[in-house]
Amino acid sequence: MIIQCPACSTRYVVPDSAIGVEGRTVRCAKCRHSWYQDSAEPVLVDEPDAKIDAVADDEAGYGPDPVFAPESPPPPASVAAARYAKSEPSQFDAAPPFRRRVNPLKMWSWAAGIFAVVAAGLILAVSFFGLPDWVPVSRPTFAAAEPDLQLDFPAERQERRQLPNGKEFFAASGSITNIGTAARRMPTILIVLRDARDRIVFSWEVPPPQRSIAPGESVVIDEAVTDIPRSAKFAEIGWKPE
Fold first, then answer.
1. Which of 154, 191, 200, 218 is deepest in the core (most CB within 10 A)?
2. Does residue 168 contact residue 174 with C-beta atoms inside 8 Å?
3. CA distance 89 to 33
4. Whose CA is closest to 232, among 161, 143, 163?
5. pLDDT in tens, 186-233
6. Contact 53, 68 (CB under 8 A)
7. Number of Cα atoms under 13 Å in the Cβ half of residue 144
8. 8 Å CB contact between 152 and 175
9. Where a domain ends, among 31, 65, 85?
10. What's the DSSP call for residue 203?
């Protein structure tokens, strides 16, 4: 019998046994269109130039096409449909449903919420722990002045001297006075040595000799340190930053 592709009008001569009595689904080897071919009575062919598709799907990498396998009995329609469903989709097949589009407004809302949470966490961490040392920001050398606590370290009571063994030491002497009317906690003292270009070349901390100081009380501080840099020229004394 002769079958003709309804899409591209290509005709094929196939044995009647390949179509069967009930008909079957076939596919055009030229345009890949699939259709259901009914059975028909045998027709004599007078056209020697009728095209017989010798290419088939096995040469194109799609597996054997059941239309061109007359030696095997035709499978049921459900089996044939399953086999064709696994083959390469045709341009005439129904298109799959579109994927759901992402809502940009919802995505940006989520991003803004996450950023707000992270920013709030960073602000709380900096407020509680302070900035880490690796952050490139300028930091004050000394803390702010303590209420009612007065530091008195005159320049004439700061001494730099060389010991007989060749080492140099720096001594600082002064006092802390509570000029207020209530007892105050005594923070740590910071002594900083600078060179001629006002760069810090050495520093050390002086723990308070007592935890608190009463109103009107004065505490004397005498501190000395050795092995200071030769470039140190003058000292600054203040409260250590917390």
1. 191
2. no
3. 10
4. 161
5. 999 999 998 988 899 998 898 988 989 999 999 999 888 888 888 888
6. yes
7. 2
8. yes
9. 85
10. E
Please give the structure tokens belonging to residue 138. 């300028």
116 is written with which tokens? 């707000």
Express each pLDDT in 130-170 by its tens digit. Answer: 666 556 556 788 888 888 999 998 888 888 888 888 788 88
Total number of domains constituting the chain: 2
Q: What are the tens digits of pLDDT across the range 78-121?
A: 555 555 555 555 555 555 555 666 678 888 888 999 999 999 88
Q: Which residue has the tokens 């930053």?
A: 241
Place of tokens 């960073």: 122
Query: By percentage, how much of the chain surpasses pLDDT 70?
Result: 69
Residue whose C-alpha is closest to residue 155's, from 240, 233, 241, 239: 233
Q: How many helices (H) and strands (E) does the chain have?
A: 4, 13
Within-domain flag for 75: yes
Two tokens, residue 152: 């008195």
Residue reference for tokens 């919420």: 113
Tokens of 214: 């009463």
Looking at residue 211, which CATH number applies to its domain? 2.60.40.10
Contact status, residue 194 vs residue 234, Cβ threshold 8 Å = yes
Distance of CA 40 to the CA centre of its chain: 66
What strands, in cross-sheet order, belong to the sheet with 189-194? Answer: 200-206, 189-194, 234-239
- Domain residues for 26? 2-85
Q: How high is the pLDDT of residue 175?
A: 92
